[in-house]
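Hi, here's the filled form for the chain we discussed.

Project: internal
Contact: R.S.
Residues: 412
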Amino acid sequence: MTKVRSGLDRRDFLQTSALGAFAAVTGIVAAPAVLRAQGASVKLGVLHPVSGALSYSGQQGRLGATIAIEEINAAGGIKALGGAKFEPMLGDAQSTPDGGNAEVEKMNAAGVSSIIGGYASSICLAASQTAARYDLPYLVDVGVADSIVTRGLKNTFRFGPGFGVIAKTALDNLVTINDQAGKPAKSVMIVHEDSLFGSGLAKLLNAQLPGRGFEVLETIAHPTPTRDFNNVVLKIKARDPDLVIPADYYNEYVLLARTMQQQRVRPKGIYSVLGGAASSYKFVKEFPEAAQYIMDCNHWFDPRNAKALALKKKVEDKGQFYTYEVFMNYSCVLLLADAIERAASADRAKIIAALESSTFAGHLMPYGPTKFVNGQNQGAAPVNTQVLGNDIQVIFPATFASAKPVFPMPRA
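And the returned structure, exactly as it came back:
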């Protein structure tokens, strides 16, 4: 949580502008603005891990949320509430579930109407549970563990797809890619971080890959953060799998891919499911050779959507990368704003009811209209991407595809 300077009343301090919030995201140094009350506002908790091991992804998520808040406020706020503006309360989960819980407690005490974000599955799982004690609406931006929405919590909603949908889509597309190439890939090694995200995905892949015709040679777990992947890559080199499937957050994913490049370990394919860097323009720009030909099944924007492309330009004009954390959180704020407009209220119970009945379709994603069943958006779906020619192309589904997959990876 942003530290309050001595001499400032906490209530006054939290009444900061969306512009000030954005300055905090982008590193612009400015004194906190203390605003006089200018009518009603809707307090919104914006929770991300902006420090610690997941800080880059958290900062990107906060960026997307604050841009959306700025745009909504500039366009006249919540019309059904007489033009009430969003008043963001920025929270730092510090890359831990306990950190997320502490911020939810503070946000609840400050009277927020709802919370978005969390990013990591472990943070979302804990923070949404804490929010449930206060009937506080919690909109998950990214966290994919299906347990987040299978506990029967009435306050918790996930905009994006979960593990089950993503893994099935990823494996269906992997089989199609492999079959079209003449089935060159038969063996797999999985490398995963050991939190709820990586461990859960590795367990699911181990259960499903053999039935799809792939032998899992070995599964290697590691902590986050990990600073050295030399021993892991030596194991990959020794087992010589056709495919390597990493399940890591951004920093570890990049380091693994770079270490494989440096040790000249080149399997037939690197195929990611929710790869922490595989669908990242930052990775592609900074390490193009390590990123080239990597495939991923992940969250992505609709490349045909004019609003999605306009946001991409706005983010890049600010010197930032257009990562999935940005457009997922941007879309979540739009979804929540739509619910509050329809509820015509900042009352928590009414927001929950409005989310339950949502058919929002004004997002940036290759989704159908939003429809929540037990908190899970049934309209959400991932896409497959591949790094080709220093760019990220959509390769599945055909409706959104901008290129055909290149597989196996060409040998250097």
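Let me know if anything looks off before we file it.
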